[in-house]
Known about the structure:
heterotrimer; B: alpha/beta; Rossmann fold; Alpha-Beta Plaits; six-stranded mixed β-sheet; about 30% strand; C: mainly alpha; two-stranded antiparallel sheet; 12 helices; about 65% helix; about 0% strand; elongated
Amino acid sequence: MKVYPIALNTFREAIRDRILYLLLFFALLMIFTSRIASLLTVGEESKIIIDVGLSAISFFGVLMAILIGITLVSREIEKRTIYNILSKPIRRYQFLLGKYAGLLLTILIMDFIMTLGLLLTLYFKSGRFELHLLLAMGLFFCELFIITAFAIFFSTFTTPILSSIFTLAIYAVGHLSWNLLALKERIASFWGKALCFMLYYLLPNLENFNIKNEVVHQLTIGWKTVLLAIGYGISYSVVIILLATLIFQRRDFV
Amino acid sequence: MIPAIEIKNLYKSFRSGFFLKKQLVLHNLSLQVQQGEAFGFLGPNGAGKTTTIRIINGLSYPDQGEVFIFGKENTNVGVKARVGFLPEEPYFYHHLTGWEFLDFYSQLFGYSRRYRHKRIAFLLELIGLQEYADMQLRKYSRGMLQRIGLAQALINDPQLVILDEPMSSLDPIGRRMVRDIIIDLGKRGKTVFFSSHILSDVEMVCDRVAIIIGGRIISVGKIGELVKEKVDFHEIVLDGISTDKLVPEFEVISHETNRTLIKVEGEEGIQRALTFIKVHKGKVISVNPQKKSLEDIFIDEIRKGGERE
Amino acid sequence: MRTRSLILLILALFFCLSLFFQLTLERARGEALSRPPFLYLPTGRYIKVLSLGYQNLAADILYLWSIQRYSRYEGEHRFRYLEHVYDMITDLDPHYIDPYLIGALTMAREGSDYERAFKLLQKGMRNNPDEWILPLDAGFYALMDLKDYSKAIDYFMRASKIEGCPPEVDRLIAGAFLRKGDKVASLKFWLDIYDSASNERIKEVSYNHIYDLKIAIDLEVLQKAINHYKEKKGKFPTSLSALVREGFLKGIPVDPDGKNYEYDRNSGKVSAASEYRLRH
Lengths: 254, 309, 280
């Protein structure tokens, strides 16, 4: 298991990075202050807390995934620490997998802390733990599988700044891609339709993981939907990681 | 015996920008390093040393040609377990302590915890950094980093150690230490392949050297042979003859009020000079034989290369 | 090379797998578009902060989205969030006129919710007092759809006071007054139109209206005086001039062509000698 030490080192590097704590601080600040914001409303106070809280967690979660995901791979290349690692008996794909695993671990822990912050804030408000929120967080974590995979994918071949822009773009596109289906209906030309159709199924569909809405209004969510979304998240990220491996395998370090 | 490193007809070119012309960096480079020898890879900056070393380590891929390490392809993971590598100007994880740093690399070899501890303790002592084992690398000095980098290259007790400019950022004590380690490795039958652009580093340690200039191997051989191959010359210090008379006949290197330094080549050159001085009633102060150093060979070759182009 | 093709194979496999999940999910969740995704959108003011200064762009995107969404024929529930969506768009960019118009159109014609349509247009008028198209549009809905002529007149008057408003709005006002039954006001507007007409065609059209209205008003006035006479005296007057003589009328009008109105002393009815269109 050569992936393990790399994952561990990645994790260690990430949690010793100050930027992570800065983001965490702002996320928690936003969650806690949502309590104050909820005082301004009439009626459903905990809805506001949940709304702001879930949004803060997803926003900062994505930000963390992108910033840390990109810096941790690019930095190895830029600072040439990767020379040392790759000259050891380790395959390049093992290196990428280790990075990916380490990043996911870091992000999982950060998400956990933020979710805990939200649950506690709600607990002080209503006196009970709103555990159904965990489902939304779980699916959001699946979304981060894909975002992180993209962060790694892009940083195997471009600069950190471009990688972060691309990954952010993927995040935005992933949440809007269902519009392509609507567009397909309105475009008359066959090729236009075909293009929309292809793009729709090629691009990640991050709306699959978005059940914030159902969670806030306590609607029932089918287990089938959840399992399918998880399956989608895992298989799609495998695709991206494999693509990254293909590119990384041929990359010249000079 | 199978050579430790065998490089066959390596070509490598870079395109520095998307539209820029390709630049040939390595030109039909072939080289063999035998097991157990300390091999110096010499060349001025930009000659292609680092590129060659990166290709050997599988970090970069050649356009053409092959590299074998102990008879196996260089990308083979099994063979990598027998190699140690210290890159040029290595950068390290600033967030790790010295101990964690070495432990991380040793984990990549899949060693047991107990063995790792023993090995790391030994290496820290070897490079004299035991006291700094728990300090984060961000607080290390350049020299300390270079030393811990060397320890990292030795973590798996490799049979082949590849060092890219191992002495470049070290103080004299550090250089001495690295030199001793290389000599010690040689004594224990390990192969050491290291590059440098500073000749004095190499002269004292290496069995054989290869000189690379402009991506081509210019010469390979024992240092003694390489130096002897090139003709010695003598410097004669004399007095009493004006430079005007000397200049058409000899190469005048310097001139002071009562001292002139001329350079002559070969035995017959000395004789001619001595006769000339006698005829012109000059005084010979000293005749000094000058061995051509590697440095001179270098400069000669670069000059020649310049003329070729 | 062998590993490469192996990786490619696994890659293709997992891609198919992800496609499978995606397609099954779509089926499980029903039509991907039938979800009302804006149920959860915050208000425009919040988005304005979130859009980091790109609120115009955000408004554009939402607007484009809304057009795509509401121009499809689907179940009725899709109009449930109409007000929220357009409120948000117009909060984001209060000076973006199209969303007010399209929003009101969708609310009125598709959702049959005129109250909200007027509310949206009112918001537009508040934010853009210089845009005559907003009150004009509101007036149209009142005139054509609701037949609420007073409301239509209010909006049209508002539009006509704004610079740049096409003068045709006066004709709409005149028409609305007529339908409301206020012929005198209508006539007044047509006279104005006639006076300020810039071409022969308008002059002709307005003249025809004035012609008709004048006759209609005169006949009304005469008929009223006759009926009054009947009430007081118990019989119809012998002639129209009898009305003037006995103080029921100040004078006897003539129609625009200078002809006298005809009076039938047996039935007590007046009628015009000339052709006019407002006979009913």
